[in-house]
Write a structure and sequence with these properties.
568 residues; alpha/beta; twelve-stranded mixed beta sheet; five-stranded parallel beta sheet; 35% helix; 20% strand
Length: 568
């Protein structure tokens, strides 16, 4: 039916029919423009590459039509992430589309069942064996390719100690896969406890030795990242570039078992240490160190000291721990006095209320920027994560609002607040969702003065999760806000919402708050799945840290001068 006949069929007046015709012509013009875009493969690939950070957009593009799908899928499988629970879907995908195998350049296989769903579910061996068998099928499909060894993907493995034998038996059948394992991270076999039986240690040693021997035979790098928590690893020369150590740090006058290990691995670039005392000392020269994270137990009795962590660099001209960027401590004033005296540019601070007095004292110091004197120490601070489960969100938000309005903490790019939530089982879910959305809306408005805040992460310690896919429609947001994350404490995977701009309506701003600042934006929050593509090194190491919860939850990398996406 033509434009005129469709318009005439409406029986509308001539003026209205003309407007209908114009709208239909505009829609058809847009459709024709879209068809022209979809007909250009190079343009589709460029669009797909641009959408690879928020992978939900990449999948949405692939769902448009078959032409889009054939250009998007190779981009999607280039960085192939295989949580153990999805091994069946990945195996099915490649079984139906074997032509995609040659596009896989980076492969990560990790036990999400143990990490995110808890060890109780992971201990159900019948279910777990099925996932492991499907993973074996997937590895068989990848290993059975007839392409050259150089085309095989770099592999990052994160598995439980009790499953090492399974992967060793599979991978030794495919040497071209074995040689490309560049990262091996071992989870406990049960919650927080390693089964360090002789057999398990021997099995792990055989696996590592087999990987390294295969790599040497084929002139590849072998393992360059290794993680094995709760145990001190014997010293040996290697190509390790990053490691996490969980061990008691000894006093300055008591030799630390970590020191000889650091001496043997002077090429380390990334170091994470959990210290059990207020001060920690260990020796080692690490000229290649790019980042260091230290978790301290610091209570109110601790005296602030510039030597919060002393580190012998082996070079008198090198400031002690000049690469220290991430510090974990207890919510108390003495922590920030220590931070203010620290000669390093601490960018990421993680605070817990554990072993601390009431958070009231802490909130009093928030409004004046923790007493950091608005100097270089405060300017370097780009991420604060606070756990104050004895305080309401309104009180915490009010303290930070005062700081932002006073021009403090202006470089803060990411903020996490864990607060005291209300558990009311008799309240309907829809009503509870509205209450929590209103709370979040009030916080977002309170933080309009945070000019560089890009990520806001909230959680109230309850098991509530949002079922809706939009939030805060027609609301006003801080000018730089990109994502809001909500933590449901029954599920370790946060719910992510991204900012989507909409036409501005100034009447939507709550009249109880200050007038709309000039630097703000109007829009809504849109739910997106937690499927950001993680950064991967050129060697194939997926850079997220499995055993450091404070670095798993953080969205931005606060080591560079300008924070960058960890999930990018």
């Amino acid at each position: 039916m033509s434009h005129k006949s469709r318009a005439a069929a409406t029986g509308a007046p001539a003026g209205k029919r003309r407007r209908i015709d114009e709208a239909e012509q505009a829609d058809e013009a847009i459709l024709r423009a879209g068809e022209r875009v979809f007909a250009i493969p190079e343009l589709l690939r460029e669009i797909g590459s641009y959408l690879m950070r928020d992978r939900i957009d990449l999948l949405a593009l692939g769902a448009v039509n078959r032409s889009c799908r054939q250009h998007v899928l190779p981009l999607w499988v280039c960085h192939l992430d295989v949580p153990l629970s999805t091994a069946d879907k990945r195996a099915s995908l490649f079984g139906s589309n074997p032509q995609l195998l040659r596009y896989v350049k980076y492969l990560r296989i990790w036990d999400d069942i143990a990490q995110y769903r808890g060890y109780k579910e992971a201990s159900d061996r019948s279910s777990l064996v099925r996932h492991l068998d499907l993973c074996k099928v997937l590895l068989g499909i990848l290993g059975g390719q007839t392409t050259s060894a150089d085309d095989f993907p770099r592999i990052d493995l994160a598995i439980r100690l009790c499953d090492v034998d399974h992967f060793r038996s599979v991978l030794q059948l495919f040497p071209r896969l074995m040689q490309n394992i560049v990262s091996l991270r071992i989870f406990p076999s049960s919650a927080g406890v390693f089964v360090t039986s002789r057999d398990s240690v021997i099995s792990l040693s055989l696996f590592v030795n087999h990987i390294q021997a295969t790599a040497r035979t084929r002139s590849t790098k072998g393992i360059i990242t290794f993680a094995y928590a709760f145990e001190v690893i014997p010293c040996s020369k290697s190509r390790l570039q990053s490691i996490q150590i969980t061990a008691a740090i000894h006093d300055k006058n008591d030799p630390s078992p970590i020191s000889p290990f650091l001496t043997a691995h002077h090429q380390l670039e990334d170091l994470t240490i959990f210290a059990q005392k207020e001060t920690a000392a260990f020796a080692g020269s690490l000229p290649s160190l790019r980042r260091c994270s230290v978790s301290l137990k610091l209570d109110t009795a601790a005296v602030g000291s510039a030597h919060m962590v002393s580190f012998s660099s082996g070079n008198a001209s090198t400031p002690a721990l000049s690469k220290l960027r991430i510090v974990t401590g207890t919510v108390c004033r003495s922590f920030f006095k220590t931070l203010a005296d620290c000669p390093h540019k601490i960018s990421h601070v993680i605070l817990s209320h554990e072993d601390a007095p009431s958070g009231t004292e802490f909130l009093e110091s928030v409004s004046n920027g923790f007493g950091l004197s608005n100097g270089p120490v405060e300017a370097a601070l780009t991420c604060i994560e606070v756990n104050l489960e004895d305080q309401s969100l309104a009180r915490i938000a009010s303290a930070f609002r005062m700081a932002f309005q006073a021009g403090r903490l202006q470089n803060l790019a990411e903020l996490q607040l864990i607060y005291q939530g209300q558990i009311e089982s008799h309240v309907p879910a829809a009503r509870m969702a509205q209450v929590k959305e209103n709370e979040i809306g009030a916080v977002v408005t309170d933080f309009l003065g945070a000019r560089r805040l890009r990520i806001l992460r909230l959680g109230d310690g309850t098991s509530f999760g949002f079922s809706s896919y939009t939030m805060l429609d027609s609301h006003v947001f801080p000018p730089a806000l990109e994502y809001l994350a909500w933590r449901d404490f029954t599920d370790s995977i946060p719910q992510y919402f991204r900012f989507v701009p909409t036409a501005q309506r100034r009447d939507s701003l709550n009249a109880l708050h200050a007038p709309l600042p000039a630097h703000s934006k109007h829009g809504r929050l849109q739910r997106v799945p937690s499927i950001f593509r993680q950064p991967i090194t050129r060697d194939g190491v997926w850079t997220r840290h499995y055993f450091a919860p404070e670095r798993m939850a953080t969205v931005l990398d606060h080591i560079p001068e300008t924070p960058q996406f960890c999930l990018t």
